[in-house]
Amino acid sequence: MKDVTIKNINLFGTLSYYFNANISMTNVTYSNNCFKDIECKTIGEIIEFPGINDNISTVNISNSTFENLNGAYGITVFNNVKYNINNITVTNCNYEYGVFLVMYETNSSVTVNNSNFKNNTAYEGTIFYIYSVRPNYDNDITINNSLFENNYAENFGGVIYVPNELLISNDISKIEFNDCEFKNNTAKKGNISFSYSKIDGPYFSNIDELIKEGAIVTNPTHIGLLPDSEKSINVLSGETLLNGIK
After folding, report:
1. Closest by alpha carbon to 80, among 158, 164, 21, 162?
2. Beta bridge partners of 204
3. Could you say which of 46, 140, 157, 169 would form a disulfide bridge with 125 (CB–CB 3.0 to 4.6 Å)?
4. Which of 23-27, 55-59, 65-69, 189-193 has the lowest mean pLDDT?
5. Burial code of 4-23, b = ≥16 C-beta within 10 A, e = fewer?
6. Which DSSP helix (H) or strand (E) runs through 210?
7. 92: three-class secondary structure by DSSP
8. 3-state DSSP call for residue 142?
9. What Rg, from alpha-carbon coordinates, does the chain have?
């Protein structure tokens, strides 16, 4: 697909559905498309690969624009799909669970280079909602030299949300942000990143700067209590401990 514009579509379901295929998109624009049911609830996505069999599909997207889109999520990353994304712009999109919904158990990957993500909103994980990955596979998610600006999550993760334990078998993160720039991203918790735990969270090449800004949040791991302390504790990452805890 090359030099194509797809705009002003209201659709019940998925716009582009591919099965066991290698796809290349260059200079493609998706604009003003809405993926909702008749009650205006978000249900669909732009691109879906079901990843049913063991054949690996490759998706190359370059020099393309995604703007003013509404749906449940933008691009699904399921089993046996490798995404190579270069120089795309994603602006003014509203997804329930992210531009990229990542949920696979076998050989998949996402590489994003030199791209811009601006003024997008979601309930959680505005750009990346990482539901699951499979350890010990070539399944890294790598983002290089990209800009994230003015993205907002109503709940967790203004840029990325990792709600579950990823069962990582070593200390190497499966998600990397290298030489990326973050400007004015916000969320209820985790303006840039909210993760199940520190080991499940992304690697950022500028992690020290982001931690100082309070933009990286994870769940608590454990708390040791003295004998005269409170015995029952309920706390979420980012909240303040009660005075009765010692």
Report:
1. 21
2. 177
3. 157
4. 55-59
5. eeeeeeeeeebbbeeeeeeb
6. helix 207-212
7. coil
8. strand
9. 19
Label residue 89 by pLDDT band (50, 70, 90). Answer: very high
Can you tell me whether residue 224 is helix, strand or coil? coil
Predicted confidence (pLDDT) per residue in 19-55, tens digit:
677 889 999 988 876 655 554 444 555 666 665 667 7
Token code pair at residue 236:
């979420």
- Integer Cα distance of 177 and 210 in angstroms: 12
Sequence-distant (6+) residues with CB within 8 A of 25 are 1, 2, 59, 60, 61, 62, 64
In this prediction, residue 222 has a pLDDT band, given cuts at 50, 70 and 90, of low
> Tell me, what amino acid is at 208?
D
Q: Please give the C-alpha separations between residue 161 and each of 134, 231, 244, in angstroms, as whole numbers.
A: 17, 30, 31
DSSP alpha helices (H): ranges in 39-152? none
Domain extent listing, the chain: 2-218
Instruction: Tell me how crowded residue 219 is: count the other CB atoms within 10 A of its CB.
Output: 17
